[in-house]
Fold each of these.
Amino acid sequence: MRPTSLTCLLLLSSPLCCTMNQASLTVSPSNSQMFEGESVSLSCEEDDSSAGWKLRRNTTRETRKECGDGWGRSAGSSCKISYMSPSDSGVYWCESREGATSNSINITVTGGSVILQSPVLPVMEGDDVTLHCKTKTSNLPADFYKDGSLIRTEPAGHMTIHNVSKSDEGLYKCHISSHGESPSSWISVTGKPTTTAPPPVSGAPPQLVFTLVCHLVVFCPYFISTLLMVSLYRHRPTGNDPPVSMATSPPTQTEQGLDDDYDDIITSVTTEHHF
Ligand SMILES: *[C@@H]1O[C@H](CO)[C@@H](O)[C@H](O)[C@H]1NC(C)=O
Ligand SMILES: *[C@@H]1O[C@H](CO)[C@@H](O)[C@H](O)[C@H]1NC(C)=O
């Protein structure tokens, strides 16, 4: 039946298109570096659980590998890795069934004895950020490096950058003497959203186009199926209707008007054919 398939199309296309599917990836504990043997939980905080968000990752060995397929234990839109090893280092993200993606997070697992604890998510411009240089057991004096250059030596093993600006963005690592060096982590800084500034110009037109396409995709099947329904209603056999139903459901004013218009069109078409 064609109207049925159109209705299906309508039902399929609306969640696919008009709910703005979004998710953000969170990591617990919220560290971008960890020691071998630690466990970690990753979860997709989503707007719409029916979108089927799943964890995926790129490592040096695999690309777009889904949680549960050779790594991690999947539970709904979350994933748990009970023993992280250096080969689990990579970039992790959430992806919906339709291919929408969340933010991505770099995780580095070291077999060494020093890690740099830095924010997993981008830092807001103007905020303070604290970096911790740690061994498994203690906080020791540490040297901090940015983009390969020593920037500070901190006796307590942690350093705070006050009033972060875009120039603080970079690749950080630390070093603890007699223990060694941590892996490097990229710290990204994002501009603070201001309420007075207009939204970025580059973002607006695609959004508008998206909304337009949305409406077209959703309302076209609606329109077509409505037309089909009307034509089916018109061509429905009426001769063998029992008279009782005629009496209990008289045509409404609009139906009457539509029928009259329709008859007029048919008459005019027929008239044209006579010429
Ligand atoms: C994962 O790897 C693929 C192939 O190299 C690449 O196209 C994609 O951008 C990567 N994803 C992320 C989030 O880095
Ligand atoms: C991940 O690390 C790479 C290389 O250090 C960097 O270019 C990229 O921006 C990082 N991604 C995130 C989400 O931090």
Amino acid sequence: MELLTDIRIRKTTHSKIGEVDFTNLEFGKYTSDHMLVCDYANGEWQTPHIVPFGNLVMSPSALALHYGQTVFEGMKAFRMEDGRINIFRMDKHYDRFVRSLERMCMAVVPKEIFVEGIARLVEMDQLWVPSEPGTALYLRPFVFASEARFGVKVAEEYRFIIFTGPVPSLYAEPIKVKVETNYIRAGKGGTGFAKCGGNYGGAFYPTHLARKEGYDQVLWTDAKENKYIEESGMMNAMFVINDTLVTPPLSDSILDGITRDSLLEIARDLAYKTEERRISVDELVNAFENNTITEAFGAGTAAVVAPIGTIHIEGLDYSLPAYTKTSISSRLKLKIERLRTGKEEDKFGWNFIV
Ligand SMILES: *Cc1c(COP(=O)(O)O)cnc(C)c1O
């Protein structure tokens, strides 16, 4: 691609790629050879640098460590059938990154630094993009407040980093989730729609408690009444009720998932009925009693679809039927995978070929 941005490059002299067992990848274990680093200071973004992946030097008083100004994205690059590399829905990830940064009162990374930075980095580390079905190069762009100053304030210095790493296909077994009516993830007017670190930090403890009770995740409910489903762990929640794909509508307490959006679009394209509306816990109970609920799953970049086998609601475990190749969630997942590896025409314009 034609570069608009000046990116300084220092290549590694010791590639780590020989240390990776590509037949046995683990999520989050390996990082590729290079990373992009770009600082914001004196009111502007400085020249981005691509350098060997390595530890950072930073002050213990860096504001992000204390007051939580830290925002990230999670996206993937795929090896296509013809060997080229595709970065999936880059524009939509960028737009969400901007919304997260704005909500956290942080400096916004210019689009060309984001797009060209990712493209250059992926191009340089292209050997790291795995090719087994379902695998990908995970991309992690993030910004944190790097200013060294321990008084409470909005930071004036930030650091933008992108690093990448190969990840396996997650063939998730159906999980057990618990409807959470005590703790909440996000409330009206809060930061639930932003991909900021604090949302995760606050979710760990309730999730830990659910795990101790034998559940894999919590199904979050709304902060006001604990009556309506919000998200499934750190994924968007989707259900098939009366053969209709149903998911809660976007709000300031729900993250605008790119997988959620993609699955909805694909479902509409395949002429499935879809509804974005509130889903109450009572509706779920009724749907189980009438056998009208046939699928429930989390939607997110890491697994695409995480099927739910059991939902715990107020003391009772409700089971969903087994998932098969003809389940709507399986069909949608297959379709998204075919689309982004080029096995099917990219009619939505979602692919960015490096
Ligand atoms: C990242 C995230 C999702 C999923 O978003 P994708 O863009 O599909 O990966 C859903 N919910 C929360 C809370 C998240 O942080």
